[in-house]
Amino acid sequence: MARTVRDANLETRTARLRLAMRAEPYWRTIDPGAHLGYYRGRRGGSWVARLYQAGRYRKTALGTADDTSDADGVAILSFAQAQGAARKWFARLAREAAGIEPPAAGPYRVRDAISDYLADYKRRGGKALAATEVAVNAHILPALGNAQLERLTARQIREWHSALAESVCPVADEGRLFGTEDPRA
Question: pTM (2 decimals)?
Answer without folding.
Answer: 0.56
